[in-house]
């Protein structure tokens, strides 16, 4: 997370655990990297790509990138306790800096191939979000990518996501995320499907519903019914708990 005021996150490790997070186990990841490796569609083709985790928390995403073979990676976290936990867990494998990521990248124009912003924008006032994302755009190389994940305000659980944490100050749908990215200098937006989907190969006799995406199907039907009943347009294409999007820096974007 990357709030405007680091003081808001004093003692946040307790809340972080309450929300289901655990300290990444780098030792186990070193033994079984394939199990922990990131497999997202937004990954750069080159393992030498320079990647920044903007607001890295305890470093779970950094661990997944490391296990996927990306070593030119770094994390920035504004919360002192959060950064300290991430640094201890990583054990020097990855540089993790305690700093305001927005300020950190202002002097790093055209530096990164990929910047990951997971579970961060909801902590930043909407009045500041555009400025932050323009700074992110400037820090990317030409045709570099940004990845953003936030709680999905199109979900029926949006209120729970929005108010489960007092440091959440903004909310986004897929539409407002694209609007923000358009204005910040990004194009070619793609959404990541994290539903699990249909996978009959994972079926087992002792788990007869596994692989049939029953939970995803039920969630989809509920949302389609609710949006149809209200006559809401446009209907969201993403109804997962979170919405995850990746976009490319515009080829004609003007550097600040």
Please describe the structure with a list of short key phrases separated by commas or semicolons.
10 helices, 7-stranded mixed β-sheet, single chain, 7 strands, Rossmann fold, alpha/beta
In brief:
The protein has 256 residues and is an alpha/beta fold.
Molecular structure report:
The chain is of the alpha/beta class and 256 residues long. It has one domain (6-195, 240-249): Vaccinia Virus protein VP39 (Rossmann fold). Helix content is 34%, strand content 18%. It contains ten helices and seven strands. The chain has a seven-stranded mixed sheet, with helices on both faces. Helix 7 (126-139) packs across helix 9. The longest helix has 17 residues, at 214-230. It is globular, with a radius of gyration of 19 Å.
């Amino acid at each position: 997370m990357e709030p405007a005021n680091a003081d808001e996150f004093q003692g946040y490790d307790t809340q972080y655990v309450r929300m289901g997070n655990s300290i990444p186990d780098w030792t186990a990841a070193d033994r079984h990297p394939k199990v922990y490796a990131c497999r997202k569609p937004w990954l750069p083709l080159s393992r030498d790509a320079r990647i920044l985790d903007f607001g890295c928390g305890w470093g779970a995403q950094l661990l997944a990138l490391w296990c996927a073979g990306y070593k030119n990676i770094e994390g920035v976290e504004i919360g002192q306790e959060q950064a300290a936990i991430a640094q201890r867990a990583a054990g020097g494998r990855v540089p993790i800096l305690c700093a305001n990521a927005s300020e950190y990248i202002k002097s790093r124009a055209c530096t990164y191939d990929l910047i990951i912003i997971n579970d961060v924008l909801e902590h930043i006032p909407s009045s500041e979000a555009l400025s932050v994302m323009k700074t992110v755009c400037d820090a990317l190389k030409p045709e570099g990518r940004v990845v953003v994940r936030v709680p999905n305000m199109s979900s029926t659980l949006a209120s729970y996501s929005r108010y489960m944490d007092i440091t959440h100050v903004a909310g986004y749908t897929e539409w407002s995320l694209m609007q923000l990215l358009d204005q910040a200098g990004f194009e070619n937006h793609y959404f990541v499907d994290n539903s699990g989907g249909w996978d009959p190969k994972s079926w087992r006799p002792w788990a007869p519903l596994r692989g049939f995406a029953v939970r995803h199907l039920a969630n989809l039907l509920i949302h389609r019914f609710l949006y149809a009943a209200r006559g809401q347009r446009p209907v969201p294409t993403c109804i997962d708990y979170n919405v995850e999007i990746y976009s490319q820096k515009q080829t004609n974007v003007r550097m600040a």
